[in-house]
Structures are given as C-alpha cells and as structure tokens.
C-alpha cells in the first residue's frame, strides 16, 4: 500500500493537494511477483471457491485489461490454463469500460445458449504504465483485480440491458504515448499513460449522466428501486459531481473505493462492489447501477441484482480479500 503522503513527497506536493483533487488517500501497488495474470488467477480462484463452482464448469473466461505486458498471448488463456479450464478465453481492451463490457458479453453468450457459466475478471497493473513524475496520473492510478461469475438462472435475469458506446474522436484525452509499436521513439521516451483530466471530466459530466438515466429507463428502474451506484472509480470529485447531476437520493450508497484503492481502470467496478458488499452497505437481492467510462473515450453500464452468493471477489496487493 502506498499512502498518498509518500506519493506527494515524490511529486513535490502535499498529501492534502492530492486528496483534495482526487479523493485518493492510498494506492495499491503490486509486487514484482504479482503479475496481471497472477492477480487475475487469485481473484478467479476466490470467486470459484465462494461459489463452490468447479473450474471445469466454466464455459468461457473474459478478462478486461489494458496492462498485459505482452500483446500476445492474452491474459485470459493463461488464466484458464492456471485453473485447468479448457474453454474459450479472451481479453477485452477497453480500459475503464472493460468490466461492464465483459459483463454484457457474458450475458449475451448465456442468452444465446452458447455458455452456461462465464467467468469475468478485471485485472490491472496500472502502476506499470504510469509516469511516476506526472502529477496527472501518478497520484491516481493503482493495481488490483476483481472477478464475477455469470451463470444461467431459472428466474429473471440479474443483469439488465447494457448501454454502451464510444467517442473515438476524443481518444487523445486519455492514451498511452508514445505508441508501444510502430513509430520511432526517442531513447528516453517510455510509453506511459497521458491524461487530460479536464477534457475527460468535461466529457464525463455531459455524457455519463445521460447514459445512467438510459440504464434506468431500459431496466425499468427508478432511483427508489436502487440501493447502490457503482461508477468507475475515476476521481472522487468527478464521482460526486456526476451523482449531483443525477440527483441521486441520499438512500443510494455511492461506491467510494477510490479513496483507499485508487483508480484501477477495468478492475475498479468489481473492487468497489466487493467493498460495498463486504462492509454491508449493499446487500444481495438489491439493485446496483454500474457504469464504466474512460479511455477510448468509451462507456458501458448496466443495472445488476447483487447476487446471493458469491459476492464479487477481488484481490489487490495489500487490500482485503
């Protein structure tokens, strides 16, 4: 765990400067042996164990990640091999919208009759692509992984219709530069995440509230029906402003995992949901609205019924199981 005071000292600012601008009080930093694959495997094992589900019952493995250090092989087949799963396995690279996009793909695979059980994981080592001297990213991004099982049910679906989209014309607001492949690079330039926080925030404030309203409409819900709002943990100030724009009532719990775990990109939603359930602030059988948004720029979200068991399971280098 990296306290924001330590990050601040390296950046020449104060802890209060970081907390007031991001809400981040600490970051999770993976050790050298905690690869993206290793963290994803740990989260998957805990989820399967909690569900009392044998690995061989999994029909597909979907991993949302942007921090696989190798373009190939993908993380998902390596995870499947570690769990002795002989099934379809592939990665989804859409950053902060990745986990909700993967949930929709799992829902569609089951609805089509192609799968009965799909393992969905969000796993990131964001510290690997952060310039530790960059005030825009170094105090914000963190490492972690979370997993969820999506299975068939005899009752109503526990995952509502997705609302998703992209605006690739705004890609420069959040991207890795210089490119990893295909262009000359100065010897001193290492690819790193570059964030125009103002541009992302302006886009989020005009786009995401409307997306969330559409999620509610398509699912047939009102805020009175919802127990928890679980947005991508982008920035605590951004989350609070989106909540105000949506006029979310006080009874709805707003996920705040970013304060202790930072921004973990595609892992942030399962991590945040796990913390809400683990602390008793959200309970099985209640509706939660999920919305991922970020690099692309892209978004994806849906409402889910919090499962009876297992709870979404997460892993982080120093975080709770």
TrEMBL record:
Domain Beta-ketoacyl-[acyl-carrier-protein] synthase III C-terminal as annotated: residue spans: 216-304
Molecular function (Gene Ontology), one example: 3-oxoacyl-[acyl-carrier-protein] synthase activity
SUPFAM superfamilies named among the record's database cross-references: Thiolase-like
Any single GO BP term: secondary metabolite biosynthetic process
Annotated CDD domains: KAS_III
Keyword line: Acyltransferase, Transferase
Domain of life: Bacteria
InterPro entries the UniProt entry points to: ACP_syn_III_C (IPR013747), ACP_syn_III_N (IPR013751), Thiolase-like (IPR016039)
Domain Beta-ketoacyl-[acyl-carrier-protein] synthase III N-terminal: 90-168
Record protein name field: Ketoacyl-ACP synthase III
